[in-house]
Specification:
alpha+beta; eight-stranded antiparallel β-sheet; five-stranded antiparallel β-sheet
């Protein structure tokens, strides 16, 4: 996966290929001071400023025709505090590099998403999450962050210092300033045993509460046009480590999940009527397996097949109804859905615009292969999600606006008031933020 896919003549394109923009200029600061100076200069020149990470958002959240800040020189670990069990990392560090560096130090994050190409600041600012009974999103694991605000000053925020900024900036959408460093809570590295196994959708829905409460991390993929799912349960283990064998790992993760899956996607895009047949075959191709390894090797997996995605957080108790409605819609629609639907959960957290803010949540993610028309499917799915007061992932496709968010986020007004204070002239504004936060 290339990170930010910069095209010809200064055009920037995101990973999903559905957002392109030409900034007036790009800056690659080598220090926080250089970044602060670039922010002040942009304000003097009357240009908007946006930081862009690895381009893994499907929305235009990082797009600007002003100054595009690339954080690739702001990377690496600044500090490890073994007494407080925290690690401070520069904002442009890819999660992949953080995970490897922590493992070398005998440390790990408690929970993470399944993709690790993103930068730490891009992932947290958009609310990226994995699945967990008690452990929440990446942003919920932040203990302190450093932020360059619109006047070029550097704010340190934590529960003790600038707590009102801390309450919002952990999932700040790039609207409050540019994050330059993040301090995460970490713990001694541990082992997880993953159990992956196919299960009928009806059974998963009937037993969902039990599966969720009995496992530290439960998720499943449902294959549209079928009644089949693939479930994954991750639980802490005393060991010993039993990693996926190299050949088995290559076959399941590279050949089946990326190689054959990619071929199936190409076929489905070219010949839509074959999609249900391909879905039935795909959904039975993966067999049950168990393995035990350190967290990032269990939580994350390579994603080489490019797609476009919409994901909504619904109240956890609304999940089963949401999925039944989604299945009924696909069954009667004539749509050809060539990608599995991913379902995860998260406990309520205390971050103003976190998708799990103050409510236990379940996440339903719908995907389509890049280059396949996705609007009809996403529009129909979104209608179902919003009927359950769903909250869309800030970095994934959705059509909601500030009026809608004011209704589904109890602390929406708190966030916009803070933004008025920190960025009164809207230096960090772009079209996406205008839509989701209001003018």
């Amino acid at each position: 996966m290339s990170s930010t896919a910069s095209g010809k003549n200064g055009t920037w394109r995101n990973w999903g290929g559905n957002v392109t923009v030409r900034p007036a200029r790009e800056v690659v600061p080598a220090s926080v001071d250089e970044l602060a100076a670039a922010v002040r200069q942009a304000a003097e020149d009357g240009l908007k400023v946006k930081a862009v990470g690895s381009g893994h958002s499907f929305t235009a959240i990082a797009a600007t025709d002003g100054v595009s800040v690339r954080p690739q020189l702001l990377t690496g670990i600044r500090d490890i505090d073994r007494k407080a069990m925290t690690v401070t990392v520069e904002a442009g560090t890819p999660l992949k590099r953080l995970n490897v560096a922590l493992a070398r130090e005998g440390l790990s994050l408690t929970n993470m998403g399944d993709i690790m190409e993103q930068t730490v600041s891009g992932a947290t600012s958009t609310g990226t999450h994995g699945t967990g009974r008690e452990s929440a999103s990446l942003a919920a694991q932040i203990r302190e962050l450093e932020l360059v605000t619109a006047d070029g000053s550097v704010l340190t925020c934590s529960e003790k210092e600038n707590p009102e900024v801390f309450a919002a900036a952990r999932v700040g959408l790039g609207a409050l300033g540019i994050v330059t460093a993040i301090t995460f809570a970490v713990e001694p590295v541990f082992l997880l045993t993953a159990r992956e196994e196919p299960m009928p959708l009806d059974r998963v829905l009937a037993e969902f509460d039990q599966l969720r409460t009995e496992n530290e991390h439960f998720e499943f993929y449902w294959f549209p046009h079928t009644g089949n799912t693939n479930t994954k349960r991750n639980n802490r283990s005393a060991g010993p480590p039993q990693p996926v064998g190299q050949l088995a790992g290559w076959f399941e993760d590279e050949f089946l999940s990326n190689g054959v899956f990619h071929a199936a996607q190409l076929l489905g895009r070219a010949v839509p009527p074959v999609v249900p047949t391909v879905a039935r075959i795909s959904s039975t191709a993966l067999s049950a397996r168990s393995y035990t390894d350190i967290p990032y090797k269990v939580f994350t997996s390579p994603r080489r097949v490019r797609f476009v995605e919409m994901e909504y957080a619904v109240p956890r108790e609304a999940l089963v109804d949401t999925l039944r409605e989604l299945k009924a819609m696909v069954d009667r629609s004539g749509l050809r859905v060539n990608f599995p639907v991913e379902v995860r959960t998260a406990p309520a957290d205390d971050i103003a615009l976190s998708t799990a803010s103050a409510r236990d949540s379940a996440y339903v993610a719908v995907h389509m292969f890049r280059g396949t028309p996705y609007q009809a499917y996403f529009t129909a799915a979104e209608r179902i999600f919003t009927a359950h007061e769903g909250r869309p992932h800030w970095g994934k496709v959705h059509t909601r606006d500030a009026d809608y968010f004011a209704g589904v986020y109890p602390r929406f007004g708190e966030f916009t008031a803070l933004r008025d204070r920190l960025d009164p002239d809207r230096l960090f504004q772009n079209d996406y933020l205008r839509r989701v936060l209001g003018p």
